[in-house]
Amino acid sequence: MAAENVCKRYGDLRALDCVSLTVGQGDFFGLLGPNGAGKTTLIGVLGGLVKADSGGAFIMGSDVRADALAARRKVGIVTQELLYDPFFTVREALDFQSKYYGLGNNGEWIDTLLERLHLGEKANTNTRNLSGGMKRRLMVAQALVHRPPVIVLDEPTAGVDINLRLSLWGFIRELNKQGHTIILTTHYLEEAEALCRTLALMRGGKIIALDKTKNLLRGCVQVRLLAEGSLPSDLPPHRKNESGRMIFNTLDYGDIEPLLASLRGAGARVIEMEVAPPDLEDAFLRIVGDGQ
Ligand SMILES: Nc1ncnc2c1ncn2[C@@H]1O[C@H](COP(=O)(O)OP(=O)(O)OP(=O)(O)O)[C@@H](O)[C@H]1O
Ligand SMILES: [Mg+2]
């Protein structure tokens, strides 16, 4: 999957500011960033749902514009917006979608999808009578109905309860193990950290960081410190929690010694100190930090 210099404006707003991105086949790729960063627009361009002003998008070599049908067969997109056809039952919607892809005899896979997405009981329910979370699950099933090699999920777990979220991830992980490429946007950073091998951070229509998840987290620690006495005036950025501990979110290991020295120099006494592994949120805030 590749985007090459994709630009998209809405009036004066640069929703995508010449984005280039390649996602390796078989990767589990996370697209993160604040509201309005351009994630959904980028996914829309990749899925042929949004027309870019310039640049190109390719799904496993197929140009989403020039070779739209071929590209569409290779990708399944769960859009952020809830879309469903109110005239079908769940099973009919999946049958219809299968026929669209020319798959006449897809019953077995549809049964698997219904089971794995916990929609079996609702198979004969009209889609307009599904709850919001169930509609989202149906959208996941519809995106997977033609077993696309590239699966794009734009906040698929928004509004989905915790049990289903876990089983959905179990299922998506399995598909990834079988070789499907997964591209995911989520605002649940712990989800991205646990699932994604590669992460891209977007802001203002640009990709501002892209790395293996483990590299993004490397060298970054969280230090929680309880001190009494007079504190130095030039402490690195931190916040205080309820119990008065100072939380230094994104220190490098090398920053710890100077921090302790400066506390000692000011006459502060360290009562308690804890060095914790960083979490993705910290790494993310360190990079996107200002201006959010
Ligand atoms: N159809 C549209 N018309 C005008 N502006 C749009 C349209 N679609 C998106 N935008 C604008 O483009 C920018 C990027 O939006 P986009 O939906 O891609 O963000 P996002 O990263 O998906 O955000 P979120 O995390 O909220 O889903 C936003 O400023 C948005 O208001
Ligand atoms: Mg979005």
Q: How would you describe the overall organization of this protein?
A:
This protein is an alpha/beta fold and 292 residues long. It folds into two domains: 2-216, Rossmann fold (3-Layer(aba) Sandwich), CATH 3.40.50; 219-288. Helices cover 34% and strands 29% of the residues. The chain contains ten helices and 14 strands. The strands form three sheets. It has a six-stranded mixed sheet, sandwiched between helices. Strands 2-1-4-5 form a four-stranded antiparallel sheet. It has a four-stranded antiparallel sheet with strand order 12-13-11-14. The longest helix has 16 residues, at 162-177. It is elongated, with a radius of gyration of 23 Å. The two termini are 29 Å apart. The model has no long low-confidence stretch (mean pLDDT 90). Bound molecules: adenosine-5'-triphosphate and magnesium ion. The site of adenosine-5'-triphosphate has 12 residues, from strand 2 and helix 1.
